[in-house]
Design a protein that fits this description.
The complex is a heterodimer of chains A (192) and B (489).
Chain A lengths: L2 E9 L2 H14 L2 E6 L7 H4 L7 H27 L12 H28 L5 E3 L11 E6 L6 H10 L4 E8 L2 E3 L14
Antiparallel strand pairs in A: 1-4, 1-5, 2-4, 3-6
Helix pairs in contact in A: 3-4
Chain B lengths: L19 H13 L4 H27 L14 H12 L1 H12 L5 H26 L26 H34 L3 H10 L7 H34 L11 H27 L8 H32 L2 H12 L3 H13 L7 H4 L2 H27 L15 H24 L5 H11 L1 H6 L1 H5 L2 H16 L8
Helix pairs in contact in B: 1-16, 2-15, 3-5, 3-9, 3-14, 4-5, 4-8, 4-9, 5-6, 5-9, 5-15, 6-7, 6-8, 8-9, 9-10, 9-14, 10-12, 11-12, 12-14
The chains are: A alpha+beta (192), B mainly alpha (489).
Amino acid sequence: MAIKKFAVAAYDDEEVLFKAVSKVRKSGFKLHDVYTPFPVHGLDVALGLKETDLHIAGFIYALCGTSTAVGFISWIYTADWSINYGGKPHFALPAWIPVTFELTVLFAAVGMVLTFCYLNQIMPGVKKHVFHPRQSDDLFVLVLDINNSAAEAEAVQFLKSTHAIETSVQMAEEGWWYGSWDKKEQYELLNA
Amino acid sequence: MHLKYESFVREPLVDGDKDYHQVSEDIIAPIERAPGRMWYVGFFFAVALLLFGVFSVTWSVYWGLGTWGVNRTIGWGWDITNFVWWVGIGHAGTLISAILLLFRQGWRTGVNRAAEAMTIFAVMCAGQFPIWHMGRVWDGFWVLPLPNTRGPLWPNFDSPLLWDVFAISTYFTVSLLFWYSGLIPDFALVRDRAKTNLRKKLYGLASFGWTGTAKNWQRQEALALVLAGLSTPLVLSVHTIVSFDFATSVIPGWHTTIFPPYFVAGAVFSGFAMVNTLLVVTRTILKLEDYITIGHLEAMNKIIVLTGSIVGIAYLTELFIAWYSQNWGEMAAFQWRILGPYWWSYWAMMTCNVVSPQLFWIKKLRRNIPFTFIMSIVVNIGMWFERFVIIVTSTYRDFIPGSWSYYNPTWPEMGFYLGTFGLFFTCYFLFAKYFPVIAVSEIKFVLKTSGENFKAKMLPQEDKSLETFVHDAHAHHDEEEHAPAHHYS
């Protein structure tokens, strides 16, 4: 966790943002991240991000759920404590389908949501720097990492050339930390 | 960028001249202002009902279930009727958010948040009934897959009642996760707009620290799609399993293979009706008519007339099969249903569920708001009677005429039912005040393809011939990408 210097540009249109992203990628500036108020389709491709593997994790969790249910119930009814229900077989697979299905879905959903939170580093109590208060409202915010670079003015100039409606330079914590959202952080005083 | 072309035959999903900021303003504003007098009146009325419910349940537990009208012949009365009714209502939310997502139905974006909330609250209400119907509620943990204290004796995994435990609890958990994973970005919006410290703190906690990076959104969409894929069979399985509670028994009137699809259709029917009841009021009070349009209500009315007709066919099929089977018990059960001492409940069900929804074939009525509201309540009265008919009129005349009986609910049962209304509306009032009742980020996502003003911008495109349109699109593409000339053959 480190406090770094960032150059921030805000755009009010996705189309301008896409052009800016491709310019940044050609420019040699280090792109920190792009923040948008809603999922912008194609942005992940434009940024060169890989497709997420979250659904594969979901599939694995689902298999865990299936095998837990079938393994657990069959162990109970064939090994641990067999009960004769109306002369039906102890290994009554068709009767276990509902519970097996429900546990498959339950494991997949819970596992995926936890993985989603872990990968995105989100949790109650987690705090991250918000580069622009309107990044969740109507602005698309592109952030350049200009740490250890004297070319601060150059970066801002570059961002202005991409038709940003607003640019700024900010000191910010780059990762996440535990904190309350109503408290100002120490480093934020640097931006005042 | 928006290459998705949407036909003008489709009405806009968002009315008025909106930009992204206006969408945030419209939907978040009710959270940021003090609630009106109507909210307080409604909320305190709901809390009063809830407290009366708590009193009735306390009474029932203290004196035992002898305070209820159920007896040895009619073992299930209002309790299980209400359970099935509430679970059924709880089907619309996940259907809207999951199945309609997979079917790419754009109109779901306006209503999915409130409908999912409704689902969660309805399942919470439903869960109360089997729990308190246990009587010795302190032994309720016996339904969990734990070995009990008399030896490693486990619950019966072959029993539909235990499947129900798994189905309802899974459904509740998955719906909650689905709902909340969509809420996180909207809570971040409320947090970033917040003027007061308390609001910043609380919505900061609720938003989990979401900032909305490109990768965040990519994962969020992947999660929503897979959860939708999981919830789709889940929502169908839940009422299927509820119907197994009846269908796997050998009681005439219950022992039929038609139950699973018939229950699921009925659940969707009543769930959409409840969504309409809530949204007609919510859109007016929170001034969200531009987002929950008459088109949205009409779409749900279409589903109501479809599922109502399915339910109607199921009723007639049941009657036909009872006759076709030439089984004495089966025929008698249906004859008594229609003409016996409970004839009024059967005919209330038939009128409300089969006859009156057919009026929705008329477009004018589908788009008429007062009529939609009245029908939504009529449908839910009808669906309550359906469950009452299935449960009580199949059991009140059992195999020994000497034990034939008649069932009347007592005040603790009625109070319990009213109490779940209190629980439901208390939760809904809190939701409407403190939560974004419409998925803001999803509305913004469809705004440029389905908003009224953006559709209007497409009018010049609409006038072009196909040839010029295709030509323009390609020329534009080349210029933008600075790509070498493509070779179109």
